Structure formats: structure tokens, C-alpha cells
Amino acid sequence: MSWSTRRQLLVLLILLLVLFIVAGIFLFPYILKAPTCSDGVKNGLETGVDCGGACERVCTEEAAELDVLWARTFKVADGVYDAVAYVENPNARAGVREIVYKFSLYDGENLLVTERVGKTHVSPNGAFPIFEGGIRTGVRVPKRTFFEFAEEPAWERLSDKAASFSLGTGNIRLEDATGSPRLTAAVSNRSIYTLADVEVMAVLYDERENALGVSETFIDTLSKGESAQAVFTWLLPFPRVPTRIEVVPRVNLFSIPF
Questions:
Q1: Buried (b) or exposed (e) across 119-158, using 16+ Cβ within 10 A?
Q2: In CATH, which of 2.60.40.3230, 3.30.70.260, 3.40.50.300, 3.40.1160.10 is domain 64-158?
Q3: For residues 242 and 209, what is the distance between their CA atoms, to the nearest angstrom?
Q4: How far apart are CA 51 and CA 55, in angstroms?
Q5: Between the chain's N and C termini, which has fewer beta carbons within 10 Å?
Q6: Among 154, 147, 140, 220, which Cα is nearest to 187's?
Q7: Cβ distance 69 to 127 under 8 Å?
Q8: Are 122 and 96 in contact (CB under 8 A)?
Q9: pLDDT tens for residues 106-144?
């Protein structure tokens, strides 16, 4: 091998080495990048693909299913009804940021009258009502109410601080139950955060724990330690005088910067 050939080979090797080093600098972060909860691969401490372990997202198979306890409709006026479903989340630390649900109303002949689709959030560890108001049915009278979630819940783990979060109620007062019912209740913010769009629902029961009526209102803003009055009214009297009143305030915990 001549001297010029050896020199050409040496230059070629140096160029290849430089190219290898440059390529390694750019490719190294991709080849040996740290596992994340959004890379589409089961790696690191995950128990599933981008879920479980250290990830905020909870694997579906690791979460208990939402349980629909009951669903009913209540007449507001001729051809107008309110619907409510009571749902329980048995998961102590897992909730859902947003999930789609559907109410289906059927008449006495088991024919579909109408449907109403909506969205809600799910807090951990507890039962809560889901309300849809002003459902128009025309001349048909709904006799049966079915409720279902229209998609699989995307479970997320909430921080431990969320476990101590609570909204309180008190001074619940019902007037004119057999005429034009009016209910008032005080809702208090027991957290250290200012809350917005606080949803407050009232469910009234008879002595056999049958729901007699339901309503919903909203509190725009509730500051730390503040209380506000929630007011509910009905156009029609209750069929019986309620013996128990449940006022349930709800806020989307995923919107709070714990």
C-alpha cells in the first residue's frame, strides 16, 4: 500500500469517527432517554403502558368500576322532567377528570322517549348524584330511567392533599313542602383554595328512603373559609313531606392546584 493510499484511508477513518461522534451526540438522548408516563411504552416503574407505578394515570385493571346505585326522573311541569343518577366511586385515591354519560328515558311500553348526554367529573372514594334538568318529553310520560357512562373512565391518581379536601353544609331549611317548596342551605369552603363553579345538588327522601325530588344550583366563587347560601325551588309540591334532605356540593378536584 502506497503512502498516498494510507493517507487517504486515515482521512476517511477520521471522517467516519467524527460522523460517528456527531451522530452519537444527537441520537444518545433518544436511545437512552429516561422512561416517562407518555412515551407509549411499558418501562421504568410502570405497571402498564403509561399507567400505574409512579404515573398519575391509573391502569384500568387496577381500578374498581363505578357503580350506578339508582336513577330516576321527576316531573317539573307538563312535558318537562329532571333526571338524577346516584353513582359510587369505591376507589380511595383515583378519580376521573371528565367522563361522558347518558340518561335514557322510556315510557310505560318500554319505548325510548328521549336521551340526554352530558359530562361530569368523578372524585375519589364516595357516592354522588349526577343531575340533568329541563328534559323535554313532549306529550309522552317517562316511566323508567336508565343511566350509563358512554366511555371508559380515564382514571387518574390524586395527591394525598385531596383526601383532606372537603366542602361543608349546614342550616338546611325546607319551606312549604306541599305547596311551592323552597330549600336553603349554607355551603362552606373548608379548603385553603378559592373555588369556582361549585355545583350543589339537593335530594329529598321520604321515610322509606325513596327520592321525592331533586334540584341543582351553582355558586360562582367560594373563597377560603367562606360560606354561601344555596337556594332551590320547585314548581310542584312533593307527593309526601320529606323526612331526610341531602345537600351535596361538588367541585372538580382536578382543577385545584394541590
A1: ebbbbbeeebbbbbeebebeebebeebebebeeebebbbb
A2: 2.60.40.3230
A3: 9
A4: 5
A5: N
A6: 220
A7: yes
A8: yes
A9: 999 999 999 999 999 999 999 999 999 999 999 999 999
Residue 75: beta bridge partners?
Answer: 81
What residue ranges do the domains of the chain occupy?
A: 64-158, 161-258
* 85 within 8 A of 150, measured Cβ to Cβ: no
Non-local (6+) Cβ contacts of 84 within 8 A are 71, 72, 73, 74, 129, 130, 131, 132, 201, 203, 211, 214
Pick from 216, 208, 220, 218: nearest CA to 244: 208
Rg (CA), the chain: 28
Query: 146: which strand partners?
Result: 104
Taking 80 as the threshold, does the pLDDT of residue 51 lie above it? Answer: yes
**Listing from the earlier edge strand, what are the strands of the sheet with 167-175?**
167-175, 182-189, 227-233
In this structure, the dihedral spanned by the alpha carbons of residues 219, 222, 227 and 231, taken in order and rounded to 10 degrees, is 0
Query: Which CATH number applies to 161-258?
Result: 2.60.40.10
pLDDT per residue as tens digits for the range 183-194: 999 999 998 889
Percent of the chain with pLDDT over 90: 69
